[in-house]
Design goal:
globular; 289 residues; Glucose Permease (Domain IIA); seven-stranded antiparallel sheet; mainly beta; 2 domains; ten-stranded antiparallel sheet
Length: 289
């Protein structure tokens, strides 16, 4: 099996093995560390979140009050701190802990169950938020280690949103692409200067998207960052989509590394769309590069 591997750029290197994850994202979040590749959101096939390092020890579990963006969220956020060696800790959010302080963990051990955190938006799915931080600096939003992509799974990809509705939730739908023009990190790419750039992120609702691969794009609204194996251009721009599907305003598109579906999100309820409906949207119209 081709294993997904993330590493922290430091000495010695720390590796995160994502084989047990369903899919994941660096940039599909409004939370600041994601905008600089200092956090990763990991999605599993079930609610159970798993430990993805070789070994570690739980050194702290802390709960703190948070505002609730959605009504079904809990009003306290658990923070799990795990020492993974090399003066580095794993800071984990959005997981109700089943572990105890002092407990030792090895790869694949359950940590707890993912929750509907007060931080999550109406269209958010449950996941584990992970940062790798210096041992002496556990809590801050800033100063987490940069995360790098080393090996990644690939999915079928297309240069437009053209597919069938495969799943419908209250505030999002999942589109399964009908055709494949390439294989890459995500199911959506754009062509820019003869390069295929794979789109990852939540845009424009989170005001950020990443384009992985090829040469970095030189535009006023883009910056180039190093995420390991790939050159990555970050688009930061606020704009309205002005796209409607069956009378429903679409607020953004989301893609994830290793997930074959394209996600469309809305603050409105998807009540006029059915499984099997065909959807087509021009991605270039959305990015407006």
């Amino acid at each position: 099996m081709h294993r997904d591997t993330i590493y922290v750029d430091g000495k010695p290197l720390i590796y995160l093995d994502l084989e047990l994850a369903s899919f994941y994202t660096l940039f599909n979040s409004p939370y600041y560390p994601h905008s600089i590749a200092s956090a990763i959101d990991i999605y599993f096939n079930s609610d159970e979140a798993l430990f993805l390092f070789e070994e570690g020890r739980v050194i702290e579990i802390k709960w703190f009050p948070i505002p609730k963006i959605r009504s079904d969220a809990i009003d306290r956020e658990p923070m799990i701190i795990i020492d993974i060696g090399s003066n580095t800790i794993a800071k984990i959010l959005h997981v109700f802990p089943k572990v105890r302080v002092g407990e030792k963990l090895v790869y694949g051990d359950p940590i707890g169950n993912t929750i509907v955190s007060g931080y999550l938006y109406p269209w958010s799915e449950k996941h584990m938020h992970l940062e790798l931080r210096p041992l002496h600096d556990r809590y801050r939003v800033r100063n987490a280690h940069k995360i790098k992509l080393l090996r990644t799974r690939e999915v079928s990809s297309h240069n437009t949103i053209y597919g069938i509705v495969a799943d419908i939730a209250k505030h999002y739908i999942l589109i399964k692409p009908i055709k494949s023009l390439a294989h890459g990190l995500t199911p959506l790419f754009i062509e820019f200067n003869s390069n295929k750039l794979f789109f990852e992120g939540g845009y424009p609702h989170y005001k950020i998207a990443a384009l992985h691969g090829g040469k970095c794009i030189n535009r006023n609204n883009t910056i180039c960052i190093d995420v390991g194996y790939y050159n990555t251009s970050i688009i930061k721009k606020s704009r309205n989509l002005e796209i409607k599907l069956y009378g429903i305003t679409i607020d953004g598109i989301s893609t994830y590394i290793g997930r074959e579906y394209i996600k469309l999100v809305s603050n409105n309820i998807f009540n006029n769309i059915s499984i099997g409906d065909v959807i087509e949207i021009d991605i270039n119209r959305i990015l407006d590069l």
